[in-house]
Amino acid sequence: MKDIKSFIKEASFSDLEKAKVLIEAALNERQAQETAKQEVLALLKEKGLTLDDLVENNSADKRAKVQAKYRITRDGETFEWSGRGKRPKAFEGVLLEQYLAN
């Protein structure tokens, strides 16, 4: 708000007119959005739905987990790799055939 008050004090008449046009356009757009929002909410209520009914739960990762193709144990720690993507450091410099997981 301070920025707006400062602009008003320092702006020329033509700058103020341009700002007025931009503000009126923003207000009209906001009013149209509010009207549309109220119409949609009324329609949902009329149909007996809620916003939650429209939103699918996409939070869970739908990709299937790939089974590990290679398994290696180093210093008591087991590392697994599907063979896809960048090769983990635990598998660098080794023959992968020796570490095929069964």
TrEMBL record:
SMART domains reported in the protein's UniProt record: HNS
Gene Ontology molecular functions: DNA binding
Pfam families named in the record: Histone_HNS
Domain of life assignment: Bacteria
Leader sequence segment: none
Domain DNA-binding protein H-NS-like C-terminal: residue ranges: 60-101
Name this protein carries in UniProt: Probable trans-acting regulatory HvrA protein
Species of origin: Pseudoalteromonas tunicata D2
